[in-house]
């Protein structure tokens, strides 16, 4: 079992009322699954993804990741866990503006104590895999949206995470680029990487082996 969410509730207080973002979520994810999370805007999809990625806490329930009780871990321990095992792909890229493409790709490797030569080789491999060798010395602002997204995905993959969390991964891409990204995810999944994606697209969701539908913070 890669991860297990048990009776998860998350809420915000608004005008003395509890507004639930997630209600009684129970989810088990095995290694090697490819899961699509769907639902209308405001249904809690991104909240759930951020919670799984440990970027966001919750108010009630239990979360176990690789047998570690996430809900009881100290912040530092939790951060080490997600840096080690989880790769994030966001629609808004989250690239660092003052770093070149090459430096952005190298970032996650610095956390993991790879030697300089190893890092160089891994970055070169990713640049090659994504056909962005010619862009390596450019800054994010000099790239198109599609290229930024590719760099974001390359960065998520470079340190070989066990789990990839993708929030509308093809949101800013044209259909050809979007298809390439989904094919790449499929290939990674075949290689054993677990993927959880949030998507509005039926077509993208179909790449997954299981679809989770959310409505008003509940799984339906």
TrEMBL record:
InterPro entries (UniProt xref): AAA+_ATPase (IPR003593), ABC_transporter-like_ATP-bd (IPR003439), ABC_transporter-like_CS (IPR017871), MacB-like_ATP-bd (IPR017911), P-loop_NTPase (IPR027417)
Pfam families: ABC_tran (PF00005)
Domain ABC transporter: 3-220
Keyword Lipoprotein part of the UniProt annotation: yes
Keyword Cell inner membrane: no
One GO cellular component, as annotated: membrane protein complex
GO molecular function terms listed in the Swiss-Prot or TrEMBL record: ATP binding; ATP hydrolysis activity; transmembrane transporter activity
PROSITE patterns: ABC_TRANSPORTER_1 (PS00211), ABC_TRANSPORTER_2 (PS50893)
Key words, A-Z: ATP-binding, Lipoprotein, Nucleotide-binding, Translocase, Transport
Family as reported in the entry's similarity comment: Belongs to the ABC transporter superfamily. Macrolide exporter (TC 3.A.1.122) family.
PANTHER family: CELL DIVISION ATP-BINDING PROTEIN FTSE, LIPOPROTEIN-RELEASING SYSTEM ATP-BINDING PROTEIN LOLD
Name listed for the protein in its UniProt record: ABC-type lipoprotein export system, ATPase component
Phylogenetic placement of the source organism: Bacteria, Pseudomonadati, Bacteroidota, Flavobacteriia, Flavobacteriales
